[in-house]
Fold:
Amino acid sequence: MRNAALALLAGVLLAACGAFEAVDYYWQGASGQLDIINRAKPIDDVIAQGDNEALAKRLTRVQVIRAYASRELGLPDNRSYTRYSDLERPFVVWNVFATPPLSLTARKWCFPVAGCVSYRGYFKESEARAEAERLAATGEDVYVSGVPAYSTLGYFDDPILSTFVRWPETELARLVFHELAHQIVYVKDDSVFNESFATAVEEAGIERWLKAEGNPQLDAQFAVSQRQRELFRVIVRDARTRLKEVYAGNLADDAKRVAKVAVFEEMKQSFLGAKAAEPGMAGYERWFAGFANKGANNANLASVAIYTAQVPAFRALLAQEGDDLPGFYARVKELALLPRLERDAWLAGLQGGGQGAAALDPVNGKP
Structure:
């Protein structure tokens, strides 16, 4: 595994084309990944050590969740999430999101392996915030998000991390299902497609897992988190809808900026009202605080849209397949063969209540 990591490191360094800043960035990424790998221990060994009973119990449950993911959800059956890494920090990486001041379209960064994505990740928070400060100085809206987990798309055996292992069990299961889904389908240069697909798998997976568990406590735990998640999504969705109208309208830029401030203030007030009615919503305070506690902005909204924009379409596609996950995965793989514009149009039609295509031709990738 270390040799594979070093090979990847050599590849990205060569791809950096000699630019010092690029080499420096890729180096922090490769060394950060190597650190995670080097810290990883087989879960059975960690449990056998017996020096942390609470962690041992949780890792035992992780093994149950991991086995269910492959056995019942058709997710990859490999060594991912069979080891544990204690990172001794709150997040594994910090992602930087950026948008123009009057747009909800996220800036993209392009990389040799992952293609173009709508964020830039750093293993050190200080480096992420320095990049965000640089972008903010150019006038862009920025947001720095601490990330508890990410997928290496099967290139490495992703371990369970200390950054999320103590989450509520339902949230832990969601995360494992989500990250394993990335190993099934990944389309270069389409973060929305990739994340929306993984979120759809996560949602379908947690519903099935809860039914199989038959545990009222887990059901109640999930109901609370789901209610809070939906409240958050509604607040964000309303703000996005209004801002899209503002930015696409005929107002002068100065007037658009005034309207933008008003929309974000109303969004903040909606959150405060939701938090008063649902105290658990306090977990979203960091998001609403935005970068450097200056309040949420376009980049915050862009970070959410990446994960949710096409989820309804994928859920509709799963329903078309009779809720058969392997069949659904096959359809998504076929869909991934389409050119970006055709793929987006097909999903938009499905999301809008249409039937999409009855099938996708796996040979030529056409509906």
About this structure: The longest helix spans residues 216-248. Residues 1-20, 355-367 have pLDDT under 50 and may be disordered.
